[in-house]
Design brief:
Strand order of the largest sheet: 1-2-3-5-4-6-7-8-9
Number of strands: 9
CATH class: Alpha Beta
Radius of gyration: 18 Å
CATH topology: Rossmann fold
Helix content: 25-40%
Oligomer: single chain
CATH architecture: 3-Layer(aba) Sandwich
Structural class: alpha/beta
Distance between the termini: 35 Å
Strand content: 15-25%
Largest sheet: 9 strands, mixed
Shape: globular
Length: 291
């Protein structure tokens, strides 16, 4: 398979549109990858805006597709949804030596690894930002100038950091239960120390590029004015206290006057039941900026 070829491996009709799954060869990740894309019925008449969804630890491109119930709302608003995988895959791709769920396969953290043995394959930042959108724009009826991004947990971290660093590319960003400050939580410290090397002190410049709190702290006025942001966090999330640092992001945004909409939802946890409850609101949020 050439780098620009796609092989269809899944197809379902959904709310008048098409839920599709494809396999392709990634030049950046140096492995075969899968992605899912929902094309709303409006795509039969012309190009439509597109929302990229980044999933969390242990997920693939299929979790959101089968659990979130997003197709109904994407069809209503005429938005395509692209779901990449969460890491490179394949026998040649290294994994955590202990098979841990929070690092390696299924846990790419949407960064460009600089350390061996990860750097040959773990280039998820460039894959999400450049390679996959270029492929989507060339193969499907989407408007490559109308792009938003969203995600959950590790994927919420990816969505926030990629959007905040590349605000000219994205019309809006949202997240469910994001890892707001990888520099200050066990999941993030484990991943960034291995993928990028060092620690939050001696490699602060590189780590901070992948930390939403750090990016908000350093945001200039143009970024604050150009990046509409919605975040939902369940207050019964068992990862909230140790891993997610939502309050730190709230406090930082308030301190630097970055107008983010961050909502705590009473009683909700970290699961896709939470995402399915509010995904309609998130797609409606993006739709107003993708017109």
């Amino acid at each position: 398979m050439t780098d620009d070829a796609v092989e269809k491996i899944g197809f379902n009709l959904s709310f008048g549109g098409q839920q599709l799954r494809f396999k392709h060869r990634s030049a950046i990740l140096q492995c075969d990858m899968t992605f899912s894309i929902y094309l709303p019925p409006q795509a039969q008449q012309g190009s439509v805006p597109v929302l990229y969804w980044l999933s969390g630890l242990t997920c693939t491109d299929e979790n959101f597709v089968t659990k979130a119930g997003a197709q109904r709302y994407a069809a209503e608003h005429g938005i395509a949804i692209v779901c990449p995988d969460t890491s490179p895959r394949g026998d040649e791709v290294p994994d955590d030596a202990d098979g841990a769920y929070d690092f390696g396969l299924g846990a790419g953290f949407y960064v460009n690894a600089t350390e061996q043995p990860w750097s040959d394959h773990y280039q998820m930042y460039d894959y999400v930002l450049d390679e996959l959108p270029a492929l989507i724009n060339s193969k499907f009826p989407v408007n490559g100038d109308k792009i938003s991004i969203s995600g959950h947990s590790m994927g919420g971290h990816g969505a926030l950091t990629i959007a905040l660093e590349n605000s000219a590319r994205y019309s809006s960003v949202s997240a469910f239960s994001p890892i707001c400050s990888p520099m200050n939580c066990p999941w993030g410290q484990k991943a960034l120390s291995a993928y990028l090397g060092g620690n939050a002190q001696d490699n602060a410049d590189q780590w901070a590029k992948h930390d939403a709190v750090a990016l908000v702290k350093g945001a200039d006025i143009s970024l604050k004015q150009s990046m509409p942001t919605l975040i939902d966090q369940g207050d019964a999330d068992n990862f909230l206290a140790e891993q997610l640092n939502t309050q730190l992001l709230i406090d930082t945004a308030e301190r630097v006057n970055f107008p983010m909409q961050i909502r705590f939802q009473p009683g909700y946890d970290h699961s896709y039941f939470f995402i399915a409850t509010l995904i309609g609101e998130h797609i409606k949020f993006h739709a107003q900026y993708l017109r």
